[in-house]
Amino acid sequence: MFQVYPYHDVKNVIETGFKVEIPNWPKFDGPDPDTTGDHKVTPFKCLGKNHALKVSK
Fold this sequence. Notes:
Layout: E1 13-15, E2 20-26, E3 36-41, E4 44-46
Antiparallel strand pairs: 1-4, 2-3
């Protein structure tokens, strides 16, 4: 399994319910790599212990 942060115990990762637009994103795979355009991504969020839903026993 590929880990971006192999030295951190990352758990409770969820996608946010919205997209973020990044302006002037380089178009590396196009005919002119110096051109830019808008790029939309779905951010991820790590829920820490204080953010996670706590169910009482």
